[in-house]
């Protein structure tokens, strides 16, 4: 049977659509209009097409937008495999390709903490549960703790951002998968061992997932959160205790929340709405801390969901798009301050949420980082001396060029001196070279090309004296950024190439010097083009995406030298034929190559999909290229965890 896809292009008419395509769609106000329009159209559809099984409702925003996907797309189903038989179809399993968590060979105790059906939760308080340390486990020392998020959903729904906090400390930032009428399921497993200290006392677990359920957005997310505790098998390297905070892999003794306090009708994150907005949190640290790391969580939404595709303001102004398009240029930087001093920056990886650019790209292989958004560590030990006075201090977050809205918060990981009630220290050097950004801009009307480049370097160094001795720590961040954007065909074609190179390095002069270097490369290529289709009154829309996340690490400490290298790249191609308000056909294909090596351990996976079907899936988990194939039938993607 041939499937026909109907796409509703809301507000997709006339002039409005022509220019705004790419630009308007992410506005909140429009979003509400879409909702209303969709509800109306849905009824209309139902009457007229009640015989057809199909349907995909892509909220127009995405589609009509030529180049810029900035839209929220809402799909039901239209692709082969949906509703195609009388048998109850299996749930489609979505997954993010990542390496399996390295686990000890011990039997975990599990604790189910929360079950909730997230219906209409937008604008409501987070869902809360009481966490108490597991009492039923035979052992109470754990070498690994894993958070498991499992969810199912059926119907039509947008991708929704969510966060999980324990005692106000964020432990997962993620995005839901978009459902099908036949139902989907997905699981996120995250190693949360670095929050170990939190798990040893009772806390409130909070989950905020702002969902909207009505006649159009029918998907309710049914969620279970479980924690798996893996007992340690005896070994604890106690002798080198002073060095443990540096390279011993021992989690912090205390993790402080740098987030908003409950009660809230929102997530605990700060909302950063523009370039002058600042999120500020006051806190106090125990006076015997000897190492401090600030872990920052970041996600970008609405007008800045696709910040890297936003043209410069001068283009927006010249084309009279001020009220309809997102500008601000393509560069964003999250700046983190401590008592007003810049301690570090985050140039974020361009996570594409599960409905982003073209939602057909992310089924069932979801975008890199979309199920487990990366967090970013800023070493603040050089500044620790200034925090040990027993007074109140503050962390601030702001975003250069921000448009509404960014969700940001952080966790302060602190290692405490077990043998002394006070430590002491001093910031010795702090170099915060001003951000340098350049823009080469050349445009005529809606056609143009823009090259944006930026550079930044932040350095700090300071000493802390504790019972482990006088340790001087230095931290450096070096960033380089390039974004090339070309708009052609009066804005109907957009090509963006962006790369962020990011090095950071922590050094400490322990008895045995500690070096922790990280080299990251975040890249994205997006091409999107609309042209007249072959049939009358149709538009053919093509999208290609390449998303790359590479990270190399080098660490040398009293515990030896370790190195790791991750290369993770996704290529996606998607097309759509649109007639009037309907998408007649569409499909999406994704290929991902993931390769991780670390000290003799290797894991790689090459997987490709087309319209929900896995075409190939090759997993290699030894360094000598021995591999095996997993043959998956449709809708039966297996998790490939290897220990
Ligand atoms: C930026 O956002 C803040 C918080 O909503 C608001 O108070 C402020 O007026 C905004 N500034 C500008 C320039 O829009
Ligand atoms: C923008 O608006 C102004 C004033 O309404 C008009 O003169 C100008 O031609 C418009 N420019 C474009 C590119 O539409
Ligand atoms: C710790 O070491 C630094 C650098 O060598 C030095 O400047 C500082 O005075 C020392 N602190 C103490 C309390 O000895
Ligand atoms: C990162 O380090 C590498 C190796 O030293 C160097 O080639 C590269 O230029 C550095 N990148 C940045 C952004 O400093
Ligand atoms: C950024 O662009 C400039 C100018 O085209 C080029 O010289 C440089 O190598 C680029 N850097 C990166 C990291 O791509
Ligand atoms: C923009 O480029 C298209 C071809 O891509 C051309 O037809 C159109 O005339 C150009 N518009 C302007 C204002 O130069
Ligand atoms: C888009 O992807 C298709 C399929 O791989 C390829 O044939 C085409 O050349 C790509 N176009 C661009 C501009 O990236
Ligand atoms: C996906 O859909 C497209 C368009 O309908 C079709 O050409 C392609 O063969 C489909 N792929 C698979 C694996 O069914």
From TrEMBL:
Keywords: Membrane, Transmembrane, Transmembrane helix. Residues 106-430 form the Peptide N-acetyl-beta-D-glucosaminyl asparaginase amidase A N-terminal domain. The chain crosses the membrane at residues 41-60. It holds the Pfam family PNGaseA. This is Peptide N-acetyl-beta-D-glucosaminyl asparaginase amidase A N-terminal domain-containing protein.
């Amino acid at each position: 049977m041939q499937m026909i896809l109907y796409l509703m292009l809301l507000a997709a008419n006339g002039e409005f659509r022509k220019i705004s395509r790419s630009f308007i769609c992410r506005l909140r106000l429009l979003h509400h209009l879409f909702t209303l329009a969709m509800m109306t159209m849905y009824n209309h559809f139902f009457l007229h097409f009640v015989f057809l099984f199909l349907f995909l409702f892509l909220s127009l925003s995405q589609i009509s937008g030529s180049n810029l996907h900035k839209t929220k797309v809402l799909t039901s189903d239209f692709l082969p495999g949906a509703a195609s038989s009388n048998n109850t179809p299996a749930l489609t399993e979505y997954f993010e390709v990542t390496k399996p968590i390295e686990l000890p060979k011990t039997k975990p105790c599990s604790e189910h903490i929360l079950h909730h059906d997230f219906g209409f939760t937008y604008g409501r308080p987070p869902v809360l549960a009481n966490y108490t340390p597991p009492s039923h486990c035979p052992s109470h020392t754990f070498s690994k703790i894993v958070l498991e998020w499992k969810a199912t959903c059926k119907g039509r729904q947008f991708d929704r951002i969510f966060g999980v906090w324990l005692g106000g400390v964020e432990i997962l930032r993620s995005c839901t998968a978009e459902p099908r009428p036949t139902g989907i399921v997905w699981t996120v497993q995250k190693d949360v061992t670095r929050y170990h200290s939190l798990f040893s006392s009772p806390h409130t677990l909070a989950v905020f997932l702002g969902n909207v359920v009505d006649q159009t957005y029918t998907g309710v997310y049914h969620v279970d959160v479980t924690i798996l505790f893996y007992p340690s098998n005896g070994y604890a390297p106690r002798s080198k205790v002073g060095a443990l905070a540096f390279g011993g892999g021992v989690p912090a003794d205390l993790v402080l929340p740098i987030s908003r306090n409950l009660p809230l009708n929102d997530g605990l994150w700060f909302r950063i709405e523009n370039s002058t907005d600042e999120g500020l949190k006051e806190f106090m640290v125990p006076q015997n801390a000897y190492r401090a790391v600030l872990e920052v969580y970041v996600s970008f939404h609405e007008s800045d969901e696709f910040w890297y595709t936003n043209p410069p303001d001068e283009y927006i102004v010249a084309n009279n798009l001020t009220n309809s398009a997102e500008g601000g240029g393509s560069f964003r930087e999250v700046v983190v301050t401590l008592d007003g001093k810049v301690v570090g920056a985050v140039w974020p990886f361009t996570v594409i949420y599960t409905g982003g650019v073209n939602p057909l790209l992310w089924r069932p292989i979801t975008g890199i980082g979309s199920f487990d958004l990366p967090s970013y560590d800023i070493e603040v030990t050089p500044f620790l001396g200034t925090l040990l006075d027993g007074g109140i201090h503050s962390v601030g977050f702001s975003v250069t060029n921000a448009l509404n809205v960014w969700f940001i918060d952080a966790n302060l990981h602190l290692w405490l001196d077990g043998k002394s009630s006070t430590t002491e220290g001093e910031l010795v050097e702090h170099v915060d070279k001003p951000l340098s950004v350049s823009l080469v801009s050349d445009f005529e009307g809606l056609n143009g090309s823009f090259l944006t480049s930026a550079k930044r370097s932040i350095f700090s160094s300071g000493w802390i004296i504790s019972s482990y001795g006088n340790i001087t720590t230095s931290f450096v961040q070096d960033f380089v950024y390039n974004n090339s954007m070309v708009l052609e065909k009066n804005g109907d074609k957009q090509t963006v190439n962006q790369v962020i190179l990011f090095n950071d390095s922590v050094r400490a002069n322990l008895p045995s010097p500690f070096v922790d270097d990280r080299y990251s490369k975040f890249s994205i290529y997006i091409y999107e083009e609309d042209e007249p289709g072959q049939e009358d009154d149709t538009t053919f829309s093509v999208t290609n995406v390449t998303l790359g996340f590479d990270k190399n690490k080098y660490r040398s400490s009293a515990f030896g030298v370790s190195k790791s290298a991750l290369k993770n790249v996704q290529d996606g191609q998607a097309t759509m034929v649109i007639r009037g308000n309907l998408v007649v056909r569409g499909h999406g294909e994704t290929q991902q190559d993931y390769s991780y090596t670390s000290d003799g351990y290797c894991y790689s996976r090459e997987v490709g999909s087309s319209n929900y079907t896995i075409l190939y899936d090759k997993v290699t988990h030894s360094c000598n290229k021995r591999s095996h194939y997993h043959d998956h039938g449709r809708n039966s993607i297996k998790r490939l965890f290897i220990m």
